[in-house]
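Supplementary Text 2. Reproducibility record for the structural model of the 100-residue chain.

All settings were left at their defaults, and a single model was retained for analysis rather than an ensemble. We include the record here because the model underlies the residue-level annotations in Supplementary Table 4.
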Amino acid sequence: MQNPTDARHGPPVSIGQYLTLELTSRQQTLQGFTRQLGCPEDLLQHIMEGQRPLTADLALKIERCWGISMKLLLDLQHEHQQWSAASQTGPERDCSPEVG
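Retained model, structure tokens:
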């Protein structure tokens, strides 16, 4: 049975792409948003660049600030991480030990 995400064209949206779209649509700056959240600007910048994962604590702060579900944010990140891992490993291989 084929996974429904296999039919997708291209990678799922990363958490950084999603947060960038939200900032743009809300006409907010990164600096202003980090002040609202009470977190260091470089932390959010690294998350948006894919250099650090979004933590549950920060996802909760975003939920309280923007009203976007913490679960949705963490699920987006998880889905993108799964896609990245699968696309980097290449075709499936038999990992059973060699005999002989």
